[in-house]
Design brief:
Radius of gyration: 19 Å
Number of helices: 9
Helix content: 25-40%
Strand content: 15-25%
Largest sheet: 7 strands, parallel
Structural class: alpha/beta
Bound molecules: uridine-5'-diphosphate
Shape: globular
Order of helices and strands: EHEEEHHEHEEHEEEHEEHEHH
CATH architecture of the largest domain: 3-Layer(aba) Sandwich
Strand order of the largest sheet: 3-2-1-4-5-6-11
CATH topology of the largest domain: Rossmann fold
CATH superfamily of the largest domain: NAD(P)-binding Rossmann-like Domain
Amino acid sequence: MPTSVVTGGAGFLGSHLCDHLLEQGHQVICVDNLDTGSLENIAHLRDDAFRFVNQDVVEPIHLDGPVDFVFHLAALASPVDYLRAPLASLKVGSYGTHNALGLAKYKRARFLISSTSEVYGDPQVHPQPETYWGNVNPIGPRGVYDEAKRYAEALTMTYHTQQGVDTRIARIFNTYGPRMRRNDGRASVQFLNQAIGGKPLTVYGDGSQTRSLCYVDDLIRGLYALMSSDEHLPVNIGNPDHEVTMLELAQTVIRITGSTSEIVFEALPIDDPQIRRPDITRAREILGWAPEIDLEEGLGRWLKALGREPAKA
Ligand code: UDP
């Protein structure tokens, strides 16, 4: 039975990854400080193969016993969170990644970092291949997340080339689905909750900015496939088929929830990327992975997980 550590394992993606690893027969150690993660996300994991460690990865991570895989997902992934706690975002990306890599090195475990499409910033190349270096404002408000992840990638690659750690880098694009925190603030969950609650959907700017949305189950399969591969260079994991403007996303959510909410326009945040779509050629070729769940299907599944039926088309 392999043992996997999942940092950020009580969060949105982390908890789904814990489920998947347990299904694959792993022992799972979930390390989380419950800042943005929640015990609710892992309450169903009563398995003997599952252990929860309440710890901030910014502090050194000491765990007993062998570890085969370290999935380092801990981060403040939503703009709302990293703008609330900018120093914590920088620390989890730097010290946190250093500690997670140190754990992997000490245990001779394979390591995967969840990096992000934010390394591309407000991209001037579209769609974004892994070879694109990005367009990031280092001192802007989003820099505390984007640069932390860029540094984390540099650290990961250096542990690979200089310290011989067997590493993987996943660049995750916008993901949605069950267990996103209600007050997470990201567009998908914000719109869904506003629509269900009969409140106006808050589209920022004129809503013409795009994101490409990937359903959580597809994303988790991609992370697992990458960890199982031999690839050390970054690999984009996201869904290129669902690049939508934020206005279209709001309209789709209203339709699928059968809501009567209206759409209101609010100020566009500083440095908000205008476009974003992954080029997943590498993921297709190296991992044999591609997303399978389209946006309407994914939103429908999410609604069902919330105990609601999607509206008929
Ligand atoms: N956004 C929006 N309304 C909201 C929340 C976000 O229009 O209530 C916009 C945001 O300005 C951005 C896009 O939706 O252009 C995606 O934002 P999100 O926070 O989901 O993630 P990001 O991709 O920016 O990290």
